[in-house]
Amino acid sequence: MTTEIRLLIVDDSADDAELLSRELRKGGFEFTFELVEDAAGLSAALAATDWDIIISDHVMPQFNSFAALKLVREKSRDTPFIVISGTVGEEVAVEVMKSGANDYMLKDNLIRLVPAVRRELEEAASRKQRRQAELALRKSEAHIRLIADNLPVLITHLDKDLRFQFVNKTAEEWYCLSAEDVLGKTVGDVIGVKALEKLQGHLDKVTSGERVNFTETLSYPDGKTRNVHVSYVPDISEDGLVRGHFGLVVDLTAHKQTEAALVETEAYLFSAVESISEGFILYDPDDRFIMCNEKYKDFYPQIKDDLVPGANLEDLARKAFERGAVKGSAEDEDLSLNLRLSQQESAQGSREQELSDGRWLLCSDRRTADGLTVGIRTDITDVKQTADQLRRAQRLEAVGQLTGGVAHDFNNILAAIIGNLDLIEDGGGIRDKFDQDGIAIALRSAHRGAALTHRLLAFSRQQALDAEATNINDILTPFHELATRTIGEDITIEMKPSADLWPTMVDVGQLENALLNLAINARDAMPDGGRLTVETANKILRDDGVMAYENLEPGAYVMIAVRDNGTGMPADVRARVFEPFFTTKDVGKGSGLGLSMVFGFARQTGGQVVISSEEGAGTTVSIYLPRADETTTAVSAVVEIEQEDSRGNETILVVEDDSDVRNFLVKVLNRLGYFVLEAEDGPAALEIMAATGVINLLLTDVILPRGMSGRDVANVFHERYPAAGVLFSSGYTRDVLNRRGQLDDGVALLNKPYRPRDMARQVREILDNRYMERPTALEA
Q1: What's the confidence (pLDDT) of residue 636?
Q2: Predicted local confidence at residue 136, as pLDDT
């Protein structure tokens, strides 16, 4: 195998150069060569490329081997340089070798040329490899030093006598010494005896050839006490002897402080999560359980033992359904779970969930930026109950408004019927018994209709109340006697009056009627007998949610409760008991208006009714009435003065849009001797007033068509006839008209339906007192 080399020949003889080339080829070398004969040529050749070997003549006309060798060694120490000469003495040869030539031989004896070239090439390659290895080692050591000096850890190398052989920059900083001051010193010399005592046992282990890892708190010469992790690795020679060890020391102080702060923060957050009133649960991005608080477990006690890290959301949801933690069917649970998962995809969402114990939860889920899902479970039972109560109140209010309107219109009809029947009955003349009985039956039926409208008005809070400051305890004894006669002897009645009961503004008759209705309902709920308890108490309803009931402002109330130990009622019945005509009794055994009247009476009085009932556990109906001022005096709705003679001859203007009622009024007043003018609305009444000089009394309906109310007509009437009287008439009660702003306080009001004699008496009363000071409340 031939070896290709790059050969540079320094000689002034081309023949000699050819001789050398031929000899080398014979020896198996393939090469390219260049011939130079002076310093300039040699310098140019050295600059142009790297040569594998240089062969130089010793003496040339303008150059010699000493000068050539000097130029070569300035560029490369490793390139082989062989001198070949014609004749030269031994002293010259020695001098050439001392100058740095690799070999010397004569031109007439080139037998050693090929071996010498081969030898020098091999040695040059070996020298080059060694130099490259040394360079690489130096670079590696520099890199290691650079890395070691830039690592935030202490790195050392100690010999078997525990003397420092290497330290990095961190060690210099901790020891407050330079590397030169540390190297050669012992551990005790550098870190002190106390620190050495802590390390001695570990140093003994590594000296015996054992790897050591430990943590310790050490004080260092820089004045800092560090919590460190130490690793000792024995340095073992090729023959297996321990010649020292390497040390790696990591400062854990900041990590430990961070870890302690993290533990403290976690404890704080955990405490905060435990202190909230909501249930809290945390899932990872794969919907696997991480943690929850105790409130969450309280909501789902059936699966609390399954709430372990890694538990799958779907599995937990299934178990909650299967074990009856939540209400609903399997289909509902599937839908709920799908909703939950879809909401998580959108990073947020909420739904309502009913638990088996009747509580309602608002389940809200939010995804964090790192993919975790935070679930909040809020108990909204009270909110839903309040919303249900509000809906019931709004429904009852709407029904009440409708009922009030129906009762008003029905009162107009009854006014005409009762009035005309009274006129027929009082009109004299001979009638057979059939006619007389028919009139009596018609009157009784009409009065029953009037009683029904009164009960409807009671529900709609539009009845007339005669309220006075009353201590409810005062009516308990007479009510006890009344209830005993009404509900029978198989029911024990117990009265529990509260001492120092506050007074309340209440219509006593209406309250007694309400209590009697409750007693009758209690009787029907105890078909086999039982106990009925009537209890009174003072109650403070605060605005912080404690003892707060639906539609009741915070304040002082007087409570009277009627309690039975009867059958009770389910939730669906309890939700509708105040609705008019709603009843669970058999046909003919109840109108469905009893509790409606109680509800309307309590609300009109400014209070409320609260029902507590469970199936099989009896019912308690509590009426809350506002506390009255101690100085409040009794109020009477209308002052009536009995007059034997209701006839007269004055002029009366009747304004009534219902033609039947208007005709009835005109007929009655004409029979009584009055001169009657009639109008169907306000504008018609104004025309009559404009054409009439004297009118002694205005009898007008409150609510009229064509843009003028009875109050508007009365204002114009008083301007024209300041000494005349005014009597209002309406199917609505005074309370309702006052609240609507359609009637002023203190004016006379005739409630429909009314008997002719009642109307005649009130007309006469106003006419007889028309010169008294007129109430100012009518001012517009």
Answers
A1: 33
A2: 77
3-state secondary structure 639-689: CCCCCCCCCCCCEEEEECCCHHHHHHHHHHHHHCCCEEEEECCHHHHHHHH
Question: Which phi and psi (to 5°) does residue 691 adopt?
Answer: -100, 0
Contact 679, 704 (CB under 8 A): no
CB contact at 8 A, 236 and 243: yes
- Predicted local confidence at residue 451, as pLDDT: 58
C-alpha 177: how far from its chain's center?
A: 59
Q: Bridge-partner residues for 216, per DSSP? A: 228
Residue 771: the pLDDT is: 43
Tell me which residue of 349, 350, 354, 348 sits closest to 332, measured CA to CA. 354
Q: Which residue has the tokens 């109650």?
A: 539
Output the pLDDT for position 670.
93
Nearest to 215 by CA among 256, 170, 171: 256
Q: At what angle do helices 330-345 and 313-322 cross, to 10 degrees?
A: 150
Residues 6+ apart with CB under 8 A from 658: 412, 415, 416, 701
CA trace torsion 657, 661, 666, 667 (10° rounding): 160
Pick from 588, 612, 613, 638: nearest CA to 750: 638
- Measured over the CA atoms of residue 752, residue 755, residue 758 and residue 759, the dihedral's sign is positive
Q: Which 8-state DSSP code applies to residue 627?
A: B
Q: Are 610 and 518 in contact (CB under 8 A)?
A: no
Rg of the Cα atoms in the chain: 59
Amino acid in position 221: P
Query: C-alpha angle with apex 320: 569 to 349, nearest 5 degrees?
Result: 95
Q: Which residues of the chain have pLDDT under 50?
A: 1, 330, 334-335, 338-339, 341-347, 430, 434, 458-462, 545-548, 587-589, 592, 633-644, 771-780
Distance CA 656, CA 681 (A): 6
pLDDT of residue 467: 72
Dist CA 333 CA 329 (whole Å)? 6
421-426 contacts: CB < 8 A, separation 24 or more? 421/446, 422/755, 422/756, 422/757, 423/664, 423/667, 423/668, 423/671, 423/756, 426/756
Query: What's the token pair of residue 313?
Result: 């959301």
Domains assigned to the chain: 3-130 (3.40.50.2300), 151-256 (3.30.450.20), 276-379 (3.30.450.20), 395-448+638-780 (3.40.50.2300), 468-626 (3.30.565.10)
Comparing CA positions, the residue from 535, 557, 554 lying closest to residue 544 is 554
How far apart CA 276 and CA 728 sit, in angstroms, is 61
Neighbours of 344 (CB within 10 A): 19
The pLDDT score that the predictor gives to residue 440 is 63
Burial of 306 (0-12, 13-18, 19+ CB in 10 A): middle
pLDDT score for 773:
38
Do residues 37 and 60 lie in contact, with contact meaning Cβ atoms separated by under 8 Å? Answer: yes
Task: Let me know the angle formed at the C-alpha of 584 by 580 and 588, rounded to the nearest 5 degrees.
Answer: 80
pLDDT at position 349, please?
63
Read off the pLDDT of residues 549-575 as tens digits, 9 standing for 90 and up.
Answer: 556 778 899 999 999 998 888 887 777
**342: nearest Cα among 351, 355, 332:** 351
Contacts of 313 (CB under 8 A, 6+ apart): 283, 287, 288, 289, 340, 341
Residue 616 three-state SS: coil
β-strand pairing of 373-379 with 360-367: antiparallel
pTM attached to this predicted model: 0.38
The identity of residue 592, as a single letter, is G
> What tokens were used for 266?
């976690």
